[in-house]
Amino acid sequence: MFSFDSDDDKLKQKLLEKHQEARIVRRIVLIISLIIFLLIGGGIAFGYSYIKSALQPVDPTNSTPIDVTVPMGSSPTKIANILQEHGIVKNAKIFKYYIKFKNEGDFQAGEYKLNQSMTFEEIIASLKTGKVIQEAVFSLTIPEGKHLEQIAKIIHEKVGHSEEDIMNKLNDIEYLKKLVELYPSILTDEIFKEGIRYPLEGYLYPATYSFYKANPSIEEIIQTMLDKTEEIVSSYQDGLAEKEMTVHELLTLASLIEEEATGQTDREKISSVFYNRMDINMPLQTDPTVLYALGEHKDRVLYVDLEVESPYNTYIIQGLPIGPIANAGEMSIKAALYPAETNFLYFLATKEGEVIFTKSLEEHNREKAKHIQ
Fold it and tell me: Where is this site: Important for catalytic activity (predicted)?
């Protein structure tokens, strides 16, 4: 005989067990969701509390005057750092973002008497009334397309610090880590990748810098240049986001464009060649990376040079080298983000400074035979 009642009981039991399991799963999901919600809520509350606190005076009851000097040519980042160092604001980054959000500017160089009871608005109002304290003692010009060692030599010749001391500071890991904290918008751990020759290669922006005392420290010189790099790069945040590119990658590509460019060159077309090659997994094969890998200047790159084992040598690696090979100016930085739309895969610089762009190796070799003896 068949026992239908027994089967029905078993079925009911299974359904009951499934129902209980479902209730347990729902409870677990609810508990996990609640925990996540609380964590997110706690993070938001902490962030809100932290920012709210940073916007308040350091000490509303302390009006003791503090002497603060803002040098000529100070960027908003530098001014914010000076204020934090003197205890006038709690957080330099919050102050910098605040003045950017409020679209404040026109701060004056000068000597100020500020205090810890001042609000952001009072500090900003004071910084607009300063008097110029002195004329520039000297100017330091860093041309485009210079390597870090060349920059160290220029600083040595102009300021007097030894090239060895300058390079030691530029390679001081503890100092570099401090800079990463000071300039998080441009400096990341990418500068510490294994194989990088100099962490700050390509990060010291080419420009003319004015200094207002005779013997600025090496740190002051480096950070003045980084201030300028931060200022330039910050204006290209939309392009970086659109390209999903890091600042390190941007400065690396810009350095290749800078090294390949001439006064008459269309940098956007050179940039397009690099992008077109990367799109089809074709090596960039740019000679300046070989010379950088070799660590020497040569008028002509030989075939044997192309085989040098290095994360900078774009004849043997795919894509961008491990880091910048020189400092790039704004024209090259802009070209690195906004290349021309072309089908070119090759370019050739003639002795006259003209750059010839071609789509195929056959065309390239034909032009090479015409112009390169």
Answer: 260
